[in-house]
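Field reference: sequence -> structure
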Amino acid sequence: MQFRRIAPPAFDVDLDIRYATASNLTGRPIYARPLCLLHPEAAARLDDAVRLAGAMGLRLRIFDGYRPPAAQWALWRALPDPRFIADPRIGSNHARGVAVDLTLSAANGTVLEMGTGFDDMEEQAYHARTDIPVEAQRNRATLLGIMTAAGWERYEYEWWHYQLPDAKSYPLVEDGALGERVM
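Structure field:
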C-alpha cells in the first residue's frame, strides 16, 4: 500500500502537526518529524474537502493523519480513556491511515474559533454542543458540512476528528510497513 503525503503544493492545506511538538496532551513530542500521511482513499476525500473549503474562502489546517502504533501507545499512557484515545491493543483508525484531525482557518490563515482547542478532552469538545459560543457552533457545523460532503464521518467525542466510513475494514499499518513507499 502506498500512503499519500499530505503537504503543499499537492494539497493546499496548512500543517500544524501537533504530535511533532510538545503542544499536545502528552506535553512532549511523540513524532520525530511533522509529517502527515493518509491512505490513498482518505487522501482523495481530503482533496475534495480542500476544494469545498476553498470555495467558501476557507482553508483546512491539519493536526494529524496516520499515527504509528508507538505514538498511539504514548497517547494511551497519557490518557487511557477510550472516548478520546483508541486502545492501542485494538487499534486506532489513525493507525489505518483513514482518520484525520483538522480545523478550519480563514484564507489568511487565522484559525476559526471552535469552542475548545485540539486535544481538549472534555465534554465541550463533543459535536453539537450548545454550551460553547454561537460562533464556535457555526464553525463546527461548517467543518462538519465540508467533511461529510467530502465523504467523511464525524467522531462524536471530538469536533476535530473525521474518518472514512467503515474505517475498521482497513488494515492496521505498522510504521515500518510504510517503508519508502510514501508517495
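Note: The chain has one domain: 4-178.
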